[in-house]
Specification:
Elements: E1 2-12, E2 23-34, E3 38-49, E4 55-66, H1 106-112, H2 123-128, H3 136-145, E5 161-162
Length: 163
């Protein structure tokens, strides 16, 4: 099976994020699309505080599975609100610009979590696939952590959704 991470949506429902607690995450498949030679599968997860049942995070992730299409299902997905909304940047200067350099061995850290995808570590493999970003998810992690160090972090509405 050839699986490719397609998209990710995260909404922080409780801000600031609790620094301790007991959380429970539940997942459900919300969409399976037939893309011809491939399938697109979207999974939704909700993370709650175990004792209060308060929702802390909502997340949607879509993967593209090559070689799994052609089963006759729908080819176009439903509107999932902010997770599928067009991401049109405002026509103004950004509120803030922060530049951070990630570690040279950042992609290798994925290996510690069991990630064996050569795209995430091998420059020759990624070059063959014309995919120069070895640590795409690392960049997303850095971006998602940055608001905590910015002035806008005190406003949950400015720092709660990451696509």
């Amino acid at each position: 099976m050839m699986l490719l991470h397609g998209e990710q949506y995260l909404e922080i429902k409780k801000y600031p994020i609790p620094i301790s607690g007991n959380l429970v995450t539940t997942a459900k498949v919300i969409e399976i699309l037939d893309k011809g030679k491939a399938a697109s599968v979207t999974v939704s997860t909700t993370t709650k505080d175990r004792s209060s049942a308060e929702i802390i995070f909502e997340n949607q992730a879509t993967v593209f599975i090559r070689g799994s299409g052609g089963f006759g299902g729908p080819s176009k997905g439903a509107d999932r609100g902010a997770a599928t909304a067009a991401n049109t940047p405002p026509k103004r200067a950004p509120d803030a610009v922060v530049e951070e350099k990630t570690s040279e061995d950042q992609a290798a850290l994925y290996r510690l979590s069991g990630d064996r995808n050569p795209l995430h570590i091998d420059p020759e493999f990624s070059y063959i696939l014309n995919h120069p970003d070895l640590s795409n998810l690392t960049g997303k992690l850095v971006v998602s952590l940055l608001p905590s160090s910015m002035d806008c972090a005190s406003s949950a509405s400015q720092a709660s959704t990451f696509i």
